[in-house]
Design goal:
The protein has about 300 residues and is an alpha/beta fold. It has helices at about 5-30, 35-50, 60-75, 130-145, 175-185, 220-230, 250-255, 280-305, and strands spanning about 75-85, 85, 90, 95-100, 110-115, 155-160, 195-200, 210-215, 235-245, 260-265.
Length: about 300
């Protein structure tokens, strides 16, 4: 064979190999950057396997132990804070749990969920979507972000106890855990370190539609919803319409901290016994997690520009 032809064939083969290799790397990167939805579902299945777990119950303590154990297994620094608020059923023991991924800076971005299920006297409520979906997804985000934090911020993964009202929702009978968490931060002189809070709640249903929540910080929700649209999930992260939620983000918002509540309140089985595992969509859980992950660099950039 002519030497020049041989050289050209070799170059062509090398180019083809490099092209194939680059596509393979891109595909692998895409796969490793995606939320493991099946793992999220396994977390949810485990959480609801303890049965109804309202604040102060033995089942809730078991759920808390599972969450803390999972955070520890992924190498996070785990903290707990137990408190005893007065409820319509008397004093109840509640425990907030959080895992820490230390960043280059002391400033903190909180990703949060509540992990209690609502108390009902007349039927067994498991809460696969409320709050199993957000708790399971938060555990998976903690695993991924411990491996690769795309920001300079420290990340706290906070599981609030006592979000649900025991009876009718009032300012006194609701969001016990987040109210206590803010009080604790103030007492420890740490509140000034919290730069933003991203709250997940009811994010796993099959007909998931997420509208911008009116009590959330405009620029923060705009980044996340824009990111969802750019990733092709505009049918879930709806650009039109709003929703309003009384939720665990409010105690932080009252302190001037940027907050966003990612929640779908239009759920047919909300606070019903049919809120079970079969009502959830692994794909939708993955989508929400992937959008949050992809939004973090832009959120961090915005915080640095206007701390």
């Amino acid at each position: 064979m002519d030497f020049s032809i041989c050289v050209k064939v070799s170059i062509a083969l090398c180019a083809a190999f490099l092209l194939l290799f680059s596509f393979s790397c891109l595909d692998t990167a895409a796969q490793t950057g995606r939320v493991d939805a099946e793992q999220v579902m396994r977390h949810i299945e485990k959480i609801i396997s303890y049965g109804p777990h309202p604040p102060g119950s033995e089942a809730q303590k078991e759920v808390g132990s599972y969450i803390a154990g999972q955070l520890q297994s992924h190498g996070l620094e785990v903290h707990t804070h137990t408190f005893h608020p007065v409820t319509p059923l008397g004093r109840r023991e509640m425990t907030n749990i959080w895992g820490v991924v230390k960043g280059k800076e002391d400033s903190i971005i909180i990703l949060a969920s509540h992990y209690d299920s609502k108390y009902f006297e007349d039927f067994s409520f498991l809460g696969a979507n409320d709050s199993g979906s957000s708790s399971g997804l938060l555990l998976e985000l903690a695993r991924m972000l411990k491996q690769d934090n795309p920001t300079d911020y420290s990340l706290w993964f906070v599981f609030f106890d006592g979000e649900e009202a025991f009876f009718d929702w009032t300012s006194a009978d609701s969001i016990y855990g987040s109210r206590e968490f803010v009080r604790m931060l103030k007492g420890r002189n740490q509140l000034r370190k919290i730069s933003a809070l991203i709250l997940l709640d009811m994010v796993g249903e099959q007909d998931l539609v997420l509208r911008k929540e009116i009590n959330s910080t405009h620029w923060l929700k705009q980044i996340i919803w824009d990111q969802g649209g750019e990733m092709g999930y505009g049918d879930i992260f709806q650009s039109r319409g709003t929703t309003g939620a009384q939720d665990d983000h409010l105690p932080f918002a009252r302190e001037g901290i940027p907050v966003v509540d990612i929640i779908d309140l239009d759920y047919a089985y909300w606070h019903k016994k049919e809120d079970t595992l079969d009502k959830l969509s692994p794909d939708n859980l993955r989508i929400v997690g992937d959008v949050v992950l992809a939004s973090l660099p832009e959120i961090a950039k915005r915080l640095k520009e206007s701390p």
